[in-house]
Amino acid sequence: MELEDLSVVEKAAMLSGGSEWDSRGNDRADIPSFVMSDGPHGVRRQLGEGDHLGLGASKPAICFPTAGTVANSWDPALAEEMGKALGKEAHDLDVNVLLGPGMNIKRNPLCGRNFEYYSEDPIVAGRMAAGLIRGIQSNGISACPKHFAVNSQELRRQASNSVVDERTMRELYLTGFEIAVREAKPMSIMTSYNEVNGVYAHENKHLLQEILRDEWGFDGMVVSDWGGSNSAVAAVKAGGSLEMPSPGFTSVRELEGAVKAGTLSEADINKRAAEVAKIAAATKLVGVGRNDLLKDDIAKAHHNIARTVAEHSSVLLKNDAATLPLKQGTRVAVIGDMAATARYQGSGSSKVNATKEESILDEVKHTEGLVLAGYEQGYDRQGQPDQVLLNDAVALVKKDTVDVVLAVVGLDERSESEGLDRSTMAIPQVQNALVEALTKTGKPVVIVLVAGSPVELPWFDDVAAMLYVGLSGQAGASATVRALTGEVNPSGHLAETWPMRYEDCPSSGWYPAIGRDAIYREGPFVGYRYYETVGVPVRFPFGYGLSYSTFAYSAITATATGVDFVVTNDSDIAGSTVAQLYVRAPQGGVLHPDRELKGFAKVELAAHESKSVHIDFDRYTFRHFDVAANAWKTESGEWTLMIGDNAEHLPLSIPHTVAGDCTPAECAADPALGHYLTGQVKDVTDAEMAVLFGHEALAPGKPTTFGVNDPIMSWVDSKGFAARTVARTLTKREAKIRQKTGSPDLNTLFILNMPPRAMSKMTQGMVDSAMVDAIVKIANGHTFRGLGGVIAGFFRNQSANKHTAKELNHD
Description:
Elements: H1 8-13, E1 36-37, H2 67-70, H3 76-92, E2 97-98, H4 122-137, E3 142-143, E4 161-163, H5 166-173, H6 175-184, E5 188-190, E6 195-196, E7 199-200, H7 205-215, E8 221-223, H8 232-238, H9 250-261, H10 266-282, H11 296-313, E9 315-319, E10 330-335, H12 337-340, H13 360-365, E11 370-376, H14 387-397, E12 404-410, H15 429-439, E13 445-450, E14 465-468, H16 476-485, E15 498-499, E16 517-519, H17 528-534, E17 538-540, E18 551-558, E19 562-569, E20 575-584, E21 596-605, E22 610-616, E23 623-626, E24 631-634, E25 637-644, E26 652-658, H18 686-693, H19 721-741, H20 746-753, H21 759-762, H22 769-779, H23 783-810
Parallel strand pairs: 1-2, 2-3, 4-6, 4-16, 5-8, 10-11, 10-12, 12-13, 13-14
Antiparallel strand pairs: 6-7, 9-14, 15-17, 18-19, 19-22, 20-21, 20-25, 23-24, 25-26
Helix pairs in contact: 3-4, 3-11, 4-6, 11-16, 14-15, 19-20, 22-23
């Protein structure tokens, strides 16, 4: 039987999940159900029905470095190798669709999920994601890049409206997805929880149809984030294919009713069902060994791949007096709780049940050529002051048997998680105090920094060397020690800017948005686009990374197709660097940041070797989005091409004339943009922002009444005692558990961020939209009327579910 021959109810049933992780198939049309699973840096195949936050047990799998760490390799080919291993494990664990990579732009360093995202720049994010996607899909399964789109904060994540001007959205927040779609052709893509300019992402026709499908040519399945669907009917109209997890039969009835009422065409249902069926067919051969664990030989090989990725992703941030690599026979004092108990991944739905764990302490013990002079914990992992731990560490370091101090510090498990944003850019004060005390001993201090995103470094000037390892996966400890000893030459470069202090960030004054509307007031001036335009000093510029080698750049030339130059390793040590191409637009024309990355190449060189490097121009190099024309255009005139190894160190430059669609005079920026013209976004007025946005910006504020899309956390201000008590109790509970366990309470955080309408999406049919409306009445102070509606709605919904189930079985 053909898909089109199925009844409307049968086709509608295919557009929502059958369980937490499975789609609904159709036996009559020979369409099997398929399995979806996190994650971006390791397969989280849960046992039984599982849960979307990763609290349940999952099968052992390799935990690779997180995206924020892999991006520091600037090596899409390496990402592809990692993707091949990820896809192989997904295949062997019977996963048809692997939910990753995460590729949202890092708008602000405090986003709790930044460790899962690649970069503040769309070229890096897009190219790295494309590599991973190609690798995953080489195994016959679907990758699923996420979260589409304009998703940059965890607070109110299911009830937040990202308000952004069209040009910034196109050039900054969508270009990475465009590169991934065009270059790697993912079979599926996941929408974000948030609204984009007032319309939920999963039902946003502008995003899903006009841009994703019509402009980029995507022909795959669009799946909602778990609980991220709002209206099933609106989603189907706009291009949303699959609603996850199972909402029971509520959405089926809504879709059937809309077709009967003539408000939804059966042709739209057919399109969406065909997109779901296409995934089922394309990944049908997955599951040769359903529910098998990874074989030992595969686990061992993939552990080694994870180590290689970590080795190429570590970033040498400082190395005074050639402290590193550590010389043969160096007597090392290892300090820090994270040296003994590794932290190598973040919290949330991406958390992997690793097949193996390593620690830096054990690796130092077993590394030939190093002498372990002792170990001290140094600090309380949960940040509680403990003078004894600090004193013991200092006492060890002062011993004559210690040559070098290896201090492992960074962010703890509470700091980086799905469901909440960081409150500060600082690492715990007990760790800062420890490092300051260690530097005062006079011994050289080498810092190994563990964190998925930038942190403030008040003691940076006083330490001898620093290696940033990020969240480096289950093989990160051995990779780290290999880099410290010189067995590996660090070659990572930062894929995001590290500001001196949080207050320097362009969006620090309005992030995260605490109300419904998250206004992207800073426009295109995110990360280095802001710092380099305005001239704000930073700790480390975008693209920064040292090496045990030194490199020189020379002989730049440009043609109509690209730029050529020579890179020389002028040291005695083989190594790799990242050559980066930035462009500066003609002066007096379209509003642009001072410089923008448009290409890069990882260059591996033997000692004293030189290589000619070519970076192609492409559709992204000189374009800008013309909002008035609703089209991409190129500015004519003299551009400047700049080559170097970070956004501030660009020793080569050359003028390059481009023949485009408009001269600088013809497409000159509106003078009314005011402070935007110089990147001074912290001083932008509301009137200037209205010019950028093309309309008056929204004014955030508290709702006077609550609706189905206001999060549970907002109920703390409810008139109703019951709703207010629920919100306040949950808030206190989460804080208490986080303090007690050292890890966030993800379930409670999810509920607090969740709007009531998600109850009809996350309860497998126990709650329908009418019951949600009744629950909202409780939040608005009509407790008894709301309770009556919930009770009556429950029995009505149960009866309707039984009827729909019979209808499907009959068909």
